[in-house]
Amino acid sequence: MKVGLVLGGGGARGLAHIGAMRALEEREHRPVAIAACSIGGIIGALIAAGHGWRHVMDLASSFPGDYFGIGGKGGLLSTKGMEKALRNELPARFEDLEIPMKVTAVDVQAGKLVILEKGPLLPALRASSALPGILSPTRLGDRYLVDGGLLNNLPVDLVREMTDAPVVAVDVSVPPDVPLPLDEEDTWWRTLAHRIQEGQPFLTLEIFLKGFLIPQAALTEARLRQHPPDLLIRPDLSRKIRMQDFHRCEEAVEAGYRAAGTALEGWKPADA
After folding, report:
1. Rounded CA gap, 121 and 138, in Å?
2. Active site residue 245
3. Three-class DSSP labels, 209-244
4. pTM, entire model
5. Residue 185: is its pLDDT beyond 80?
6. Which residue among the candidates 107, 147, 171, 230 is catalytic per the annotation?
7. From the CB of residue 158, how many other CB atoms can be counted at a distance below 10 Å?
8. 157 forms bridges with which residues in the sheet?
9. How far apart are CA 77 and CA 68, in angstroms?
10. Is 147 an annotated catalytic residue?
């Protein structure tokens, strides 16, 4: 069956998209249009370039690998390394993809949603993934672009414009009610040392990220009410898989596979 595919952002949680793609492939559901955001854009581009889930899984073992470097203007980190890592896996331009695709980004100066669907592919994927304040904005033409998740993290509306096929959307966003360790009673220095030892992000960064995730969740729910997909898949990634937990790749992929398999079992779109 032909489907329109929507892959949302969520950092490392987006590795669940690979498992969802496995379930779709096994049931011979073939994407004919893809709309995506952030890591969903990266995995979506690999799918659109003709790669199957097994190859994407092999590539995922290196996520984020050398993707991150010292940040430039407006970011702690840079993702220019992402282009180098994906250069041999993807065509240079959107127009050369086997499956048409659109990704979302935000013009940080104008405060407006930007849809990228033509021209250079890798810079567009970098722009769609540029979490504000953490990753440097990407300059495309006269615009500085950041993560599309600010305004449209699960772009069902875009794929509806691209195809009449039934739409399958995979939402891997972080729940906005994940608690923060604000009640820990310890000195600032001991807490800092513990979190460095355990490889956990600083509380300030966690609060910053949650300030991004709370409005993102509200916007996503509002957009889903206006543009519902034919099938919405939300993998059970638990509250413990964080946006930066790329080392939990197999766990995330398996969660995506289980959720998609359950959702697709016996699924028949209304117009099928």
Report:
1. 12
2. no
3. HHHHHHHHHHHHHHHHHHCCCCEEECCCCCCCCCCC
4. 0.88
5. no
6. 147
7. 23
8. none
9. 6
10. yes
